[in-house]
Amino acid sequence: QVQLVESGGGLVQAGESLRLSCVASGSFFRINVMGWYRQAPGKQRELVASITSGSSTNYADSVKGRFTISRDNAKNTVYLQMNSLKPEDTSVYYCNAHLLGRDLRNYGYWGQGTQVTVSS
Questions:
Q1: Which one of 55, 62, 99, 117 is least enclosed by Cβ atoms within 10 Å?
Q2: Backbone torsions φ then ψ of 88, nearest 5 degrees
């Protein structure tokens, strides 16, 4: 069984920063893509940023220049550094991982989510 555990959410004021972390644990062969999504009340879940095992990154237009995704493959951990936060960044942030299982099949997993609230 694979688990993704997020941490680092909280309440901040506009313009401040937060750093989210997500650790993958369990039995698998390799993690391919890791990413962060967010979902605000009444809205669909949307991609914030993703990173491949080779460190290629992809960002939503709304966070480009403010957020930075990175990963530590040795620790099976992905990070999201969020700077210049805005009230519209308020959401539950979810970690996502696409990995290769021991059976060499592809699997996708979600974390439980961490709340980020930005006050104006």
A1: 55
A2: -70, -5
Contact 118, 86 (CB under 8 A): yes
What are the pLDDT digits (tens) for 24-73?
999 999 999 999 999 999 999 999 999 999 999 999 999 999 999 999 99
Two tokens, residue 112: 């439980």
Question: Which tokens is 5 given?
Answer: 């555990």
Q: Is the pLDDT of residue 1 over 90?
A: no
Of 22, 27, 18, 30, the C-alpha closest to 5 is 22
**Within a 10 A sphere around the Cβ of 16, how many other Cβ atoms?**
14
